[in-house]
Amino acid sequence: MRETERKYDLDEDAALPPWPEPADAAGSQEFVLEAIYFDTADLRLAADGVTLRRRRGGADSGWHLKLPVAADCRDEIRVGFTRGEAGRRSPQPPDELVRLVHGFTRGRPLVPVAELTTRRRQWRLTDDSGRGLVTVVDDHVTAHTMGVSTEARSWREVEVELDEAGDTRLLDRFDRRLRKAGVRRSEAPSKLARVLGDRIPAARRPGPDRSATLGAVVLAYLAEQARVIRTGDPAVRREVPDAVHRMRVATRRMRSALQAFGAVVDRDATGDLAAELKWLAAVLGVARDLEVLEARILAAVAALPDELVLGPVAAQVTRYFTGRRVLARDEVLAALDGERYLALLTAIDRLLDTPPLTPAAGRRARPRLGAFLDRSHRRVDTHLRAAERRGPDVERDIQLHDARKAAKRLRYAAEAAAPVLGEPARALIRQVRQVQELLGERQDAIVALPVLRELGAAAALEGGNGFTFGVLHQQEHQALTATTWTPVRRALGRAARGATAR
Asked: What 3 state SS string does 96-121 have?
């Protein structure tokens, strides 16, 4: 379930302000919650804003895993107690939750790190039809850390959480009312973060600004991709829509940055890591490409006039892809559970903790980033020019495929540079994204052609009619020659000149 809430600090004797209208309080409840939080000894979960707890009391006793999504927003996965578990003092977390945090823990054991007791008063505010808008809780918390040394703390906080019928505008209204009454937004993202305090490993580094060095720019970009890979792991395991795509793109971005900025982070020292990132992207790519191709063909079928759809075409397409997607997913999960993946994550940590920086890394980024972008742009331009000189042949296909790969590298380099170069880099990103989409559309058509032939042949062998797949095959073939590349190349060149001007 998705949890969107805001937390506030409150003095022990402070009064809560009246609730904003329209909202009717459905009466308050009071209860005591007892929670034990689990993490690795070095607090790897807490470092990424992940919490895993065993809680007793209230309406949702059991195990709770919370995964960060965005500011004020987390996904919560709940697992109820097994028979007799609620009475045991410190059982181990359930396997299904342990697997979800495998990418964070790297197989390290989960141990109790903090214990909290909360005296809670709760209101559920509803609209006129009784649907929940927000839940407000007033918590008095006592807590202590667990392990070699312990530290006790107590505090009071208010949480305002959206219910099924609420929206963020209502959170904003509560926020204004609370702030007007002198209530402060909490700096701690969770109760666990508050009790652990500075024991939690600090974030690696702030984002670069206009005065940053080349090393700071590149490392900030690499650190962000590392975060996306880590947080993408449980999303992939849970089959969250688009999770495979996001994790795959992050691996590509990291590998591309290592290549594009090899003069900043020593390319020779990161060659093995780049190869392993390529491996992970390839594993994720099989599953992602099947998703994209199935959706493409089904959309094309749906767009055809009824008289051109002969037989159960959509069902044939779904049947073709279902088994392949299951196998691809099994391969992804096997990779994420394997030692090679854990070694890759460790190598990424090592890169960020002790980066192999060159002397160029200490130079100011702003006057030098343009050279990196210009070099990446020239690769795209070279391949597009070569494709323009060719007719519709294999060599043209190769040049456009290489242009697509070069465009990705240019876009990722521009993304890394954007915090320093500002709008010119963002304009380049927008333009190269359009080039990527055109080249990607063409590549998708090339990939679809043999699959459509296979589907058509299979339909005939099964006694059906392959006509519709022939129609789709012809459409995809026409798509290969639909784009004129000269204006595309020139528009990209103008955006690149704007971003690389000094």
From this structure: HHHHHCHHHHCCCCCEEEEEEEEEEE
